[in-house]
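User: Just a sanity check before I run the rest of the batch. Below are the structure tokens for the first item. I only need the designed sequence back.
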């Protein structure tokens, strides 16, 4: 029921609720499928670096247990998204 609630929140664009739900589930049982849904939430929230990382970890963790459509969707996102970069400036 908790997973279904997270999916419903994601589909209903209640992204903070979906994020909290999937994070709680991942803490309880770190399954690759949850990385996919956390990536979907991050993508919807325009957190592209997080989405890129979550999808990459999903592909690595799930191995061959991913259906072809999901694999294609994630690979398309990873290849079409700019490689996440980060720049930090420290002044003292």
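Assistant: Here's the designed sequence for the first item:
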């Amino acid at each position: 029921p908790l997973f279904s609630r997270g999916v419903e929140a994601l589909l209903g664009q209640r992204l903070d609720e979906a994020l909290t739900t999937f994070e709680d589930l991942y803490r309880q049982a770190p399954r690759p499928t949850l990385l996919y849904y956390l990536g979907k939430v991050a993508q919807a929230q325009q957190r592209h670096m997080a989405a890129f990382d979550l999808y990459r970890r999903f592909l690595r963790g799930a191995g061959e247990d991913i259906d072809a459509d999901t694999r294609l969707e994630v690979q398309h996102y990873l290849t079409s998204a700019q490689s996440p970069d980060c720049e930090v400036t420290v002044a003292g």
